[in-house]
Request: fold
Amino acid sequence: SQQGEEDPQALSIQEGENATMNCSYKTSINNLQWYRQNSGRGLVHLILIRSNEREKHSGRLRVTLDTSKKSSSLLITASRAADTASYFCATDARAGGTSYGKLTFGQGTILTVHP
Amino acid sequence: DTEVTQTPKHLVMGMTNKKSLKCEQHMGHRAMYWYKQKAKKPPELMFVYSYEKLSINESVPSRFSPECPNSSLLNLHLHALQPEDSALYLCASSPVRDQGDEQYFGPGTRLTVT
Reply:
């Protein structure tokens, strides 16, 4: 079963506006990651937030994590047409000490940014 | 080199064919992954290799057979597939855990089973 559920499923905005996507999950996690996928190609890692962190920034991206509510949000500020893509949250529930992760992806949000 | 490469980009095969997908990375990552992604769905984990040993098999049918011949290469051997196996197959790699948790994905192989 999918760990992460995202909303909205689709988001359509104008260039320059902010885009907010939400992700909820069900079990305890080690970290939560956000990925972008363009047109059914490979995924690109955007940002990772650990379970003991509450907020993280990277360029125009801001991620928050609320472990008490088992939810995260991704904010993209001043969006551009090039931000048009699918965005997935992914939770990693593997405990520390393992040499690899085990990601479970949410259903994704399709973002369309109109020029 | 921060790239994961996958070949072929596209593959069409019949249900009686045997084919292989190939994935390569030269970032020194010791964990490698196979995911399957159906249209408009999220990627689903199939297999994880860690230090060239199979660590996770997510109850994948035996018609999919992974292989990790060395630390840079990951193969997925396909045999007697069904039309419902048509999907985008993604390979990923990640550093040793205490050096980072993000996964680096290849562009994928789009597989069509006829």
Remarks:
- The first strand of chain B starts at residue 4 and ends at 7.
- The radius of gyration of chain B is 13 Å.
- Chain B touches chain A through 31 residues (CB under 8 Å).
